[in-house]
Amino acid sequence: MSDVSDAATVRILLADAAIADPAGKVNALGAGLTGLGINPGTGLTSGFALFIQVGVPPQFYNAECAVEIVLEDIGGALVEIPGPGPGLPPQPLRVGQAVRFDTPSFPQPANVPPRYLPARVQWVLSFATGLPLAMSQGYSWRVKIDNETKDDWVERFVVLGPVAGPVLG
């Protein structure tokens, strides 16, 4: 495990919608959801947003690492979605980026204790039209830092489906 991944704190949040403003604040609606609806006609889930934040202590200011966000099925296998065009093969749903943990900054003038706050990077991934996932199944978003992961760097959710059997009424 790298020093950065060993020291990192990861937050993951699913919401109906979310945006990050230029100051680094995240605004979320319907935050904390664990179940996505699905449109059986299209096979797509309801739209949603995924918020990821990775923080490191001050001793890692200016440190660099690789961060990857992956979608896994209930068995831990990478979820594949249709290719970006006709005839192209399915691709695993993963997002990766090299990041640098810059020293936190504030608009001047600001009197902030030096080397007090963690350095953070964050993303909001918006899936406004949903994803082609199987109903009545469980999935997990997993974060990897320098190809390492921890049990608490996972956010689980389900795609809701109809109850099997006759409808009583």
Report what the structure shows.
- The protein has one domain: Coagulation Factor XIII, Chain A, domain 1.
- The mean pLDDT is 92.
- 3% of the residues lie in helices and 44% in strands.
- The protein is elongated.
- It has 169 residues and is mostly beta strands.
- The protein has 1 helix and 14 strands.
- The strands form 5 sheets. The chain has a 5-stranded mixed beta sheet with strand order 4-14-13-8-11, with no helix packed on it.
Features:
Coagulation Factor XIII, Chain A, domain 1; 3% helix; 3-stranded antiparallel beta sheet; mainly beta; 169 residues; 5-stranded mixed beta sheet; 1 helix
Under the CATH scheme, the architecture is Distorted Sandwich
CATH topology: Coagulation Factor XIII, Chain A, domain 1
Distance between the termini: 56 Å
Q: Could you name the ranges where pLDDT drops below 50 across 5 or more consecutive residues?
A: none
- Major sheet characteristics: 5 strands, mixed
Average pLDDT, rounded to a whole number, is 92
Query: What's the order of the H and E elements?
Result: HEEEEEEEEEEEEEE
- How many separate domains? 1
Query: What's the total count of β strands?
Result: 14
Rg over alpha carbons: 19 Å
**Helix proportion of residues, in percent?**
under 10%
Shape estimate: elongated
